[in-house]
Amino acid sequence: MNISGITSTALSGMRAQTTRIGAIANNVANSSTPDYARLNTSLTSLEPGGVQAVVSPTSSDVDPATELTDLLEAEQSYKANAVVFESGADMWEMLMSIKRD
Questions:
Q1: Would you call 29 helix, strand, or coil by DSSP?
Q2: Interval 44-66: pLDDT, tens
Q3: CB crowding 77-88: b at 16 or more within 10 Å, else e
Q4: Could you state, in order of their start, the residue ranges of all structural domains in the chain?
Q5: Is there a contact between 79 and 11 (Cβ–Cβ < 8 Å)?
C-alpha cells in the first residue's frame, strides 16, 4: 500500500467513527422519546482499503452504559486512525523534502 492509500484508509476510519459518534449522540438525546428506535452503527470494509459506517435503527432500547462504552470505543478508534493519518502525512512530508534535496 502506498502513502496516499494509508492516509485515505485512516481518513475513512475517522469519518466512520464520526458517523458512529453522531448516532450515539442521537441515541442519548432521544433516549426518553416514546417509540424511539435506537440507532446501531455497523462498519463495513471498502475495497481496496478503508471502512464505511452504516447506521440503522434497531428494536432495542437505549442503555446509557452501552452508549458510553460505544462512545469510548469510537473515541479510541478515532484517535488511532488520526495517529495513522498523521504518520502518513509525516512520511509524505519527508519524501517531499528528500525529493527537493
A1: helix
A2: 999 888 999 999 999 889 999 99
A3: bbeebeebbeeb
A4: 3-100
A5: no
Q: What pTM was estimated for this model as a whole?
A: 0.85
What amino acid is encoded at 5 in this protein? Answer: G
Instruction: Name the grid cell of 73.
Output: 470505543
Q: Rounded to whole angstroms, how far apart are CA atoms 86 and 92?
A: 10
Task: Provide the pLDDT for residue 1.
Answer: 65
Q: DSSP strand E in 1-101: where?
A: 39-45, 51-57
CA 33, CA 36: separation in Å to the nearest integer? 6
Can you tell me the distance from the alpha carbon of 54 to that of 85, in angstroms, rounded to the nearest whole number? Answer: 22
Q: Given the C-alpha cell 485515505, which residue does it identify?
A: 8
